Amino acid sequence: MTRASSWRAVPLLLLAALASAGSVGAQTQTQTQTSVAGSNQVAVGPMSGGTIDDHRISAQQVQTLLKAQGPQRDELLRRFVAELNQQAQRAAYTEGSVRQFMETLTRRKVPPNRLKQQLGEILRSHLALETRLAAIPVTSAPIQARVTQAQAARWAGRFDEVDTLLGEALQIARADARPLKAQLRASRRLAASVLASQASLALTRLDPDKGVWLLVEAFEERADDVEPETFWWLIEAGDAALADGRSARALEAFQRAQRAAQGRLVEVPEDPTWLHALSVSHIRTGDAQSALMMWSRALKSYQASLEIVRRLVERDPGNAEWQNALLVSHDKIAEGHGLLDDQGKALKSYQAHLEIARRLVERDPGNAQWQHALSVSHENIGLRLHDGARGDLAGALKNHQTSQEIMRRLVERDPGNTKWQNELSFNHISVGDMHRAQGDLAGALKSYQTLLEITRLLAERDPGEILWQKNLSVSHNKIGDVHKAQGDLAGALKSYQAGLEVRRGLPELDPNTKSMIASQHDRIGDVQKAQGDLAGALQSYQAGLEIVRALAEREPGETGWRYSVAASHERIRDVQKAQGDLDGALKSDQAGQESRRWMTEIDPDHPQSKSSIAAQHERIGDEQRAKGDLSGALQSYQTSQEGRRWLAELDPGKAQWQRDLSVSHQRIGDVQKAQGDLAGALKSYQASLEIRRQLVERDPGNAEWQRNLLASHNKIGDVQSAQGDLGGALQSYQAGLEAARRLVELDLGSLLGQSGLWVSHLNMGEVQQAQGDLGGALKSYQASLEVARRMVERDPDNAVGQMGLAGSCWQLSQLDTPALPKAERRALLERGLAVLEGLQERGQLPPDQQTWPDLWRQVLKEMTP
Predict the structure, then answer these.
(1) SS3 of residue 19 by DSSP
(2) What are phi and psi of 851, to 5 degrees?
(3) Model confidence at 53, in pLDDT bands (50, 70, 90)?
(4) Residue 535 CB-half CA count within 13 A
(5) For the chain, how far is it from start to end, CA to CA, in angstroms?
(6) Are residues 739 and 710 in contact, defined by beta-carbon separation less than 8 angstroms?
(7) DSSP structural state of residue 30
(8) What is the structure's pLDDT at 38?
(9) What is the pLDDT of residues 403-434, one digit of tens each?
(10) CA–CA dist 503, 542 (Å, integer)
């Protein structure tokens, strides 16, 4: 470093940190924003004849009944039937019917973790079958006989006989319709009712494929005679298909329901029943589109629902059903914005949800549903305030604590309601996370320990409920995370091992939870590695690998397992490198690459595969660039960019994919600049800037987008400066300064925001100095010094702020102007030297900068007083 050299080379740590704000992590998958699911779901429609309170039936109870044999099973069955009838407040079930239910559960091989849910569906479908049989519009004695016999067979649990009798009734009804034209309408209604009854039977027997087909057939039988009942058949069909994982089939059903409601509104404009039905169809259509990753379309569907519901609320503000639908629409729109990474708009939607919930609570303070909606609103707002784009930790904590207090009161009102208990435990997670994010590890630990008490109580109350067991393992992990952050690796290891013991029992309830055991082994391995126990870490990682490898072999079409296998090999590779086992590390690396290659070949057009392939090429490019192979790196980055552009064009509304494309342009620009192709680099940086401008315009409150915009302006300014375009460079750096100011306004505590201010002022000063504007340069350097001083004042131990302070002192000391006497410049140099010496003494001065204090002493020696 010479006296004439710019300080640009000095604070490498700071500049690298700022530049990486727009590049690091491009290959990372988007984190999904978590939303608390409330009770704001649109009902499938009323069902008469008794109801079942699901949370009063335990999974353990169902498992015990299935495992029992002989007289014990008979006695347990009698008790269970009595309990069901007591809940239904009438004789709704017989031992024969419930015995058939149990046989259905066994025959369908329902996993233990879904027994409770599936039994609930069977019970509801069984009641619906009773209602629909009673509602069949009988037109002849033969049909009356079949229906009566079917009712008796249903009561006795002879479901095959019910199916046969309904089939006969259907054939008779259709036969009657042919010769009796006058009775066509009634007969078609009859046929549709019979089909709908058969659909309920199919769903009772856990045959969703047949149930969906029959419900759609029932609707089509009355396609020219649409009524609310037939509309809900389509909604029920779509719901069943969506729950069965057949999202495209669900979308067809929901869109057919949408067209049916629109058709009726042509006949009866502004009818509230059909307006509500249309709003429901839009919500359900959006759900199916979201499941198909059609996020922009899903958002439009949710917005269409909101517009309809607003009209209903304006007409009848006191209608609780419309108010609930309004809550649902805002919640769904917020989720849609979140999926598109537009967190600013998501936050606004949740705030609208909050205002509605507040009004409802003020109107009816004792209503638990509205209280719960209010709690959910605060929870979701807290989650959005906490995300990486905003980081309003104080605001997030306040909202989470408010949500927690509401849920605590609900739990006190109904201690037996496990749903409330579960949501309260989630509140403790959120509050603990906020404490941890603020650095209050003691507060976080206290919240997580309360979480552990709740989840342990729920797990002990019903050991067969897998959700409670999962949450118990999460509680142990949260506590372990705090211990790890506190440096208590032994305590962290103990908590993670407790979580492992819980997770080892999960596959008995649900075989699909084996991957949770694998991730726990990885978590334990990370701690062992940090402790220096490389042999233990290797053993843990290998245990995790064995599990995910078996899962990948069992389900070769599931690309997610291949991702996990590749990640496991990479963890093992890193440990083997640390052990000096380079041959083993090479084999592990090759195995990981092979897994990723196989994974992308099986479904190359899946967005996840496209993203993985792009990320892989980026990693290769990074390695080539580090080795000096700039041509190879450029080719790898360009190949990666093809995938990033494909994703960005697939859904232009997906902000994260747009951001990844902007980073791709930046990577290419960096290589072009290193090759000396300044014109090419400028073009790439400008392409990146254009995307980032659009992202900022879409969500001005997103701090990440502002950081990336700042990085683009600085990179463009650097190229313009190297080209000799000092006027253009100054303009770019000034634009970067404005972006840095907005970033600071969004997050006053942001180190990157303050660093951005410092870099922008410094860059402007260098250009002004090169232009001969020494007065302007002096003001810019002094502004950079003031920013660095504030950084150090806020965090004296932060090396980035200290380096910035030294850098500003150096630039000012080298500015030869009458406005800055030599004595002042010497004092500035001495101040900067003291900072460097302090960093060197504390071991915070990078190895390649160890000679700088000596250089500064030499400059001081030559700078005569």
Answers:
(1) helix
(2) -85, -5
(3) low
(4) 0
(5) 23
(6) yes
(7) P
(8) 34
(9) 999 999 999 999 889 989 999 999 999 999 99
(10) 17
What pLDDT, in 10s, does the model give residues 344-358? 888 899 999 999 999
Tokens, residue 153: 């067979």
CA distance 341 to 386: 14
Q: State the residue for tokens 């995910």.
A: 548
Report the candidate in 760, 670, 668 with the shortest Cα–Cα distance to residue 719.
670
Nearest to 816 by CA among 779, 856, 769: 769
Give the model's pLDDT for residue 629: 93
Condensed to tens digits (0 to 9), the pLDDT of residues 59-100 reads 888 889 899 999 999 999 999 999 888 888 888 899 999 999
pTM of the model: 0.67
* Cross-strand bridge partners of residue 820: 817
Q: Do residues 368 and 360 make contact, with C-beta atoms less than 8 angstroms apart?
A: no
- Three-state DSSP class for residue 226: coil
Q: How many helices (H) and strands (E) does the chain have?
A: 36, 0
φ/ψ of residue 523, rounded to 5: -65, -45
Average predicted confidence (pLDDT) for the chain: 86
Cβ 714 vs Cβ 732: under 8 Å: yes
SS3 702: coil
**Predicted confidence (pLDDT) at residue 497 exceeds the cutoff of 70:** yes
Least confident of 157-171, 589-603, 849-863: 589-603
Inter-residue contact 764 to 730 (CB < 8 Å): yes
SS3 per residue for 289-307 = HHHCCCHHHHHHHHHHHHH
Going by the DSSP 8-state scheme, the letter that residue 32 receives in this structure is: P
Of 102, 120, 136, the residue nearest 94 (C-alpha): 102
Angle CA 430–435–437, to nearest 5 = 90
Q: 94: helix, coil or strand?
A: coil
Q: Which residue type sits at 28?
A: T
Write out the two tokens for 378.
């605060």
What backbone phi and psi angles, to 5 degrees, belong to 352?
A: -65, -40
Angle at 825 between CA 821 and CA 831, to 5 degrees: 145
**Interatomic CA distance for residues 269 and 273, integer angstroms:** 11
